[in-house]
Write a structure and sequence with these properties.
The protein has 334 residues and is of the alpha+beta class. It has 4 helices and 13 strands. Helix 1 packs antiparallel against helix 4.
Length: 334
């Protein structure tokens, strides 16, 4: 019986030991993915800020500028693209809506971001755009890959429609989470005017005819949870200018928007809570279960060897004495 039990334990030991790397290196890359129907809203503020007054074409100081960013999964488009892409695809219809202290629109930039649900690599398909302009993204945007590494990544900048390195700047602790800090600086670059202007009668075409151009620079910072790849905090030191042309007095330049943009505290709190719940699922597949199965396999192997050794000891295994009994003495003849 002991030998049979040791063989059963050995089989289970082999099973759990083999399951450990399969779960980490085979199952996890296929199971961990962004759901196609995800919806997320984020509110950012610049307090105070500088904003252009289109009535006077001069910059003025305002108490607050608000930016509302929404990411909405487009399931129908995901299904359509997956038919030809041959992999799991997520389509995010994003909108960045900027409003002044009076709540009126300053700018409104829609995007369509198409990417691989597992790796977050961009998928190039019809509909990929920023503010109606067709783009071809390289690198990531909005989210880092699962199990983010301590290295530089390529990050897409929607204003310039180009990609540039975003640099790893070290590990920090943020609200109880160990996070990686990344930083990217975009130098002054000429960028397109928004398709939707805040003043009636002013269009990008009319501004361009007057010879006025829009320029932009920013320094963006992200604090990223390395397990899920989700940013838990972000900031931008953002500046935009209108330069030259007949629209500006004297053909000089004027600040269109400038401010230190930060995520509002209540949205930071809700993001951290969400990431903490999601990271437990990722750790379950990458750490807890693989290491648990490996330790369980080692324990079962040790127990199997112990039972096998006991079954081979003399006088054990069958539960009876295997030595040849001595013959009983015969009674003497009468």
């Amino acid at each position: 019986m002991r030998r049979k039990a040791s063989l059963v334990l050995l089989a289970f030991a082999v099973f759990f030991t083999a399951l450990s790397p399969l779960l980490r290196w085979y199952a996890f890359p296929r199971l961990a993915k962004i759901p196609p129907s995800q919806y997320q809203e984020m509110v950012l503020e610049a307090k105070p800020a500088t904003l252009i007054d289109y009535g006077t074409m001069k910059a003025k100081r305002v108490p607050k500028v608000t930016i509302v960013q929404t990411l909405k999964g487009n399931v129908a488009e995901s299904d359509r693209i997956e038919l030809t892409a041959g992999r799991d695809v997520v389509v995010w219809d994003a909108l960045s809506y900027v409003s002044g202290p009076d709540g009126k629109m300053v700018s409104e930039i829609p995007e369509r971001y198409i990417f691989d649900a597992h790796s977050q690599e961009p998928v190039h398909a019809t509909g990929e755009m920023v503010d109606g302009d067709r783009v071809r993204r390289e690198g990531i945007e909005y989210k880092w890959p699962f199990l983010t590494e301590r290295r530089d990544y390529t990050y897409f900048d929607a204003q310039t429609r180009t990609s540039a390195p975003i640099h790893y700047k070290g590990t920090r602790t943020f609200r109880g989470l160990e996070v990686y800090r990344f930083e990217q600086t975009i130098p002054w670059t000429k960028v397109p005017l928004p398709k939707k202007m805040p003043v009636k009668g002013i269009t990008p075409e009319s501004v361009e005819k007057m010879g006025t151009t829009r320029w932009y620079t920013t320094k963006r910072m992200f604090w990223v949870d390395p397990v899920t790849g989700a940013p838990v905090n972000g900031e931008e030191i953002h500046r935009e200018e209108l330069r030259g042309g007949d629209l500006l007095p004297g053909g000089g330049k004027v600040t269109a928007f400038a401010g230190h943009v930060k995520i509002r505290d209540d949205y930071v709190d809700s993001t951290v809570a969400l990431v903490k719940s999601q990271r437990s699922l990722v750790l379950l597949l990458t750490t807890y279960l693989p290491w648990g199965f490996l330790l369980l396999g080692a324990a079962l192997l040790a127990l199997s060897l112990h039972l096998e050794a006991r079954s081979r000891r003399p006088g054990t295994g069958s539960g009876r004495d295997d030595r040849t009994p001595e013959p009983e003495p015969r009674p003497a003849p009468a």
